[in-house]
Amino acid sequence: MAQVLSPDVESLRTAVAGQVLQAGDPGYEEARVIWNADIDRRPAVIVRCANAADVSAAIGFARRQNLEIAVRGGAHSTAGACIVEDGLMIDLSLMREVTVDPVARRAVVGGGATLGDRDDATQAHGLATTGGLVSHTGVAGLTLGGGMGWLTRKFGLAIDNLVSAEVVTADGRILRASASDNPDLFWAIRGGGGNFGVVTAFEFKLHPLEPMVQLGLFFWSVDRTAEVLRLARDLFSTLPAELNIMIAAINAPPEPFVPEQHRFQPGIALLVTGFGSAEEHAAIVSRIRAELPPLFDLVTPLPYVQLLKMFDEGNAFGFRGYDKSVYLGDLSEGAISVVAEQLPRKQSPLSALFFYRLDGAYSAVGEDETAFGGGRSPRYALFIIALADSVEGLAADRQWVRTLWDALQPHALGIGSYVNGESEFADDRVRSSYGPAKYERLARIKAVYDPDNVFHLNANIHPAT
Ligand SMILES: Cc1cc2nc3c(=O)[nH]c(=O)nc-3n(C[C@H](O)[C@H](O)[C@H](O)COP(=O)(O)OP(=O)(O)OC[C@H]3O[C@@H](n4cnc5c(N)ncnc54)[C@H](O)[C@@H]3O)c2cc1C
């Protein structure tokens, strides 16, 4: 354990409005719990910040004390990038305030807010913006790496809806980043992760979205994987912008709509979501039922905020996780046969594949408008996720993730990955995820805002020399 002298910690306690915790303090053990139970680290100091000034004080303290800094938003990083052994953890989980301006259609969101905090608040006004699949994910980490979810086809990535941010930089300054204020920093934080400072507030553009959406969930046994992927490919070729389809290779949940004999069985599902006309949605539903009758389905309108919580339980805090990601230009026959062959080999019922379709509004944004590493041509982002409740279970499926990822490489679009879908951040993988030109531009901006690489527990961009 690092030696942090108590008089120094006492001075930090007096300086901040939030809480300063060390081992033995009430609340310390709870504050070091992160989503991935496979990671168990004990920071020397945890600063539960109440505002941007606290963040600035915590950075200054850590630098003076030579403590490595980790920044915690929603704590979902499978790599455990939000927590550090012996160092100082800047914990933003007290900063979850969301303010919605329904007239200007803007939301200002605290740096520690979850997607649920933000989306519940915006939906109260019939408004929404892009988030992810699980509502307890942090807005911060998800947005800084890009952010993809149900609404990506309609509204682009989370970063495509970012209007401005408040950023505390490595030297403790509190800066605004937007198209007109520190535009280089604004460009970099839209995809470049937590490399450039601690974001204490995000301002998002909002869009009208009806509170009720259409859901069609169709489930097939795992031996039908190739047929389901081909069907999805056909459906996407003419899919209206108001609809999306998530392809999810999951085990059937023990829900009332699932016939008893299919519960917990491995399989593959299409989740067809409709954010516009019910007729367009109904047409796809009929087509799926006619072309490839599923084992069971659930077709129902449901509140959008409920859709956003559908995968919460299966991805709860407390499981052990590991993931990798890959971009596929298309569901080619080669990629389909790899997935169909490898999918039945996963062992944990919680391990899963999620295919996010990226096109429409996603592809309307220029390649260089943001620092996001994935190209903007239409594609799929595939998350390959191992999730288990034991060390042995995770070890087996970690190997499954790696084998499937390797086997998909000949069919992948480029060699990059989505930085938010990776548990390991080898330097060469980070560089290839951005490509040389973007990486060099990010490195130059890093040299301006964080020349000493204070924020390096992330998909790290090394400052240009
Ligand atoms: C169950 C699950 C579901 C997911 N679903 C999706 C999805 O649908 N779409 C998607 O795009 N991604 C998804 N992801 C990936 C997710 O986007 C990343 O794990 C993301 O990093 C999580 O952000 P966080 O704030 O919760 O994580 P944290 O672990 O708190 O942080 C992740 C990284 O961001 C940095 N960071 C956090 N907060 C700040 C801040 N305020 N300022 C600066 N840096 C900060 C951290 O230092 C760390 O490097 C999912 C992950 C999980 C585990």
Key structural traits:
single chain, 465 residues, alpha+beta, Uridine Diphospho-n-acetylenolpyruvylglucosamine Reductase, domain 2, Uridine Diphospho-n-acetylenolpyruvylglucosamine Reductase, domain 3, Vanillyl-alcohol Oxidase, Chain A, domain 3, five-stranded antiparallel β-sheet, binds flavin-adenine dinucleotide
Please explain how this structure is put together.
Helix content is 29%, strand content 23%. It is α+β, with helices and mostly antiparallel strands and 465 residues long. It folds into 3 domains: 6-91, Uridine Diphospho-n-acetylenolpyruvylglucosamine Reductase, domain 2 (2-Layer Sandwich); 98-209 and 433-449, Uridine Diphospho-n-acetylenolpyruvylglucosamine Reductase, domain 3 (2-Layer Sandwich); 212-421, Vanillyl-alcohol Oxidase, Chain A, domain 3. The strands form 4 sheets. A 7-stranded antiparallel sheet has the order 15-12-14-13-17-18-16. The chain has a 5-stranded antiparallel sheet with strand order 5-6-10-8-9. Strand 8 and strand 9 form a beta hairpin. The relative contact order is 0.12. Flavin-adenine dinucleotide binds at residues 35, 70-78, 81-82, 92, 111, 132-134, 137-138, 140-142, 144-149, 194, 198-199, 315, 420, 457-458.
> How many E strands?
18
CATH domain fold name of the largest domain: Vanillyl-alcohol Oxidase, Chain A, domain 3
Calculate the terminal CA-CA distance, rounded to whole Å.
32 Å
Sheet-strand content, in percent, reads: 15-25%
Strand order of the largest sheet: 15-12-14-13-17-18-16
**Bound ligands, each once:** flavin-adenine dinucleotide
**Principal-axis shape:** globular
The protein's oligomeric status is: single chain
Low-confidence stretches: none
Helix content: 25-40%
Q: Which structural class matches the secondary elements?
A: alpha+beta
Number of domains: 3
> What integer value in Å does the Rg equal?
22 Å
Q: Let me know the average pLDDT.
A: 96
CATH architecture of the largest domain: 3-Layer(aba) Sandwich
Helix segment tally: 14
Which CATH C-level class of the largest domain is it?
Alpha Beta
For the sheet with most strands, the description reads: 7 strands, antiparallel
